[in-house]
Amino acid sequence: QQQVKQSPQSLIVQKGGISIINCAYENTAFDYFPWYQQFPGKGPALLIAIRPDVSEKKEGRFTISFNKSAKQFSLHIMDSQPGDSATYFCAASKGGSARQLTFGSGTQLTVLP
Amino acid sequence: DTAVSQTPKYLVTQMGNDKSIKCEQNLGHDTMYWYKQDSKKFLKIMFSYNNKELIINETVPNRFSPKSPDKAHLNLHINSLELGDSAVYFCASSQGYQAALYFGPGTRLLVL
Fold first, then answer.
1. pLDDT at residue A98 in the model
2. Which residues of B3-20 are buried (b: 16+ CB within 10 A; e: fewer)?
3. FRET label pair with B86: which of A3, A72, B22, B38, CA 20 to 30 Å apart?
4. A67 close to A1: Cβ distance less than 8 angstroms
């Protein structure tokens, strides 16, 4: 049972373009939605996170958009750079706890120079 | 300073062997985890552990066992290794019930 569905599986974007990765969840008890970034050969690292009391959170070129009624959230990377090429994981948690974290299946982003 | 470290980085072994992976965190966190990342990069939690409670993902075979000598260390022991155990194993830590996970660099296990 996949509680967090992520799409697309892979994404190729030109430098300067906008990268958009989408996630959908089923469990309405989820109340914390982080995104993790993983470079080849490295462990995932927390990139940005949102709680359902806000519809959008922006940190630099990275923005999370959250739609509670649709049970969907997305990551937007503005002005995508080759250095953003990595695998991105969305995740969701109940009670804001890492112990209850459920990951999506990942999106491999390639930004072409 | 490395926040979460793992050894070894690579581990190649024969089927049927027993092996261990070590993990140490210097963040002062009270909860540590082991995750398995398969060839499709899917991340699956195996264990979470603090000094009070060990939570085991029910799908993890009992050949896998975490051992924590102290709050800063959580080692993973694997008995009777199987081909399907080949994966990247990540240690991670968090503080209390905060949701930010800090991952180690991973141990790439190949079972021949």
1. 77
2. ebebeeeebebeeeeebe
3. A3
4. no
Closest alpha carbon to B9 in A42, A78, A13, A62: A42
Q: What is the C-alpha to C-alpha distance for residues A55 and A67, in angstroms, rounded to an integer?
A: 6
Give contacts of B55 with chain A, Cβ < 8 Å: 99
The contacts of residue B70 (CB under 8 Å, 6+ apart) are none
**Do residue A87 and residue B41 have CB atoms under 8 angstroms apart?**
yes
Q: What is the pLDDT of residues B57-72, one digit of tens each?
A: 878 999 999 998 888 9
In whole angstroms, what is the distance from residue A95 CA to residue A101 CA? 10
Angle at B66 between CA A103 and CA B104, to 5 degrees: 50
Q: Does B56 touch chain A (CB under 8 A)?
A: no
pLDDT for A107: 98
Mean predicted confidence (pLDDT) in A97-110: 90
Residue B55 pLDDT class (50, 70, 90 cuts): confident
Instruction: Check if B27 contacts A (Cβ < 8 Å).
Output: no
